[in-house]
Specification:
single chain, alpha+beta, outer membrane lipoprotein receptor (LolB), chain A, nine-stranded antiparallel sheet, 23% helix
């Protein structure tokens, strides 16, 4: 679960977008092209998991570092410290490879993994990814990425699970291609 979460978050890296109305294909190609220029990403995050059986959401906070072609560190700082990296167990390594595809923008144009639709809203773009692969479909009904046009970055990722649970990840202090 956490590994798929990591892959989705890496997709939601600072993807600059123009504020002009564009066709679906133009917006998707623009996002994928921008992602291909990303060498490194650092950011902090707040993750809120809403579960059907719990009244209040579970909140975690941490930081992420991603470096092309194959380095990823996802670190939870609260409520407990935990680090997930590409050096982890084999099944996590498979997810890390998927993350790298997402960071490179390949997932946006991979019609075998996701059906992608993008719409323009006031001040942002909203990209909805519907899983097509069996492994992703077993877990998620859809993923929604929120791109803030003023900041030219993804600032939120929503993940809707088959179980009815929902996770919101808010990204902030995003730094692209530093050091």
């Amino acid at each position: 679960m956490k590994e798929i979460l990591l892959s989705i978050l890496c997709l939601s890296l600072a993807l600059p977008l123009s504020a002009q109305d564009q066709s679906q294909e133009q917006m998707i190609q623009e996002m994928a092209s921008a992602a291909r220029g990303i060498r490194t990403v650092r950011c902090n995050f707040k993750q809120t998991k809403h579960m059907k059986m719990l009244r209040d959401g579970q909140v975690s906070e941490g930081r992420m570092f991603c470096q092309q072609p194959d380095k990823l560190i996802w670190e939870y700082l609260s409520p407990r410290q935990e680090t997930i990296s590409t050096d982890a167990e084999a099944w996590k390594g498979a997810m890390a490879r998927m993350i790298m595809k997402l960071v490179a923008g390949q997932a946006l144009t991979d019609s075998k993994a996701f059906q992608v639709t993008v719409k323009q809203l006031p001040g942002k773009y909203e990209a909805t990814l519907i899983p097509l692969r069996k492994d992703l479909k077993r877990l998620y009904t859809k993923l929604v990425l929120h791109y803030d046009l003023g900041q030219a970055t993804v600032t939120q990722v929503e993940m809707y699970e088959k179980t009815g649970d929902h996770t919101l990840i808010e990204l902030f202090d995003i730094r692209i291609n530093e050091g």
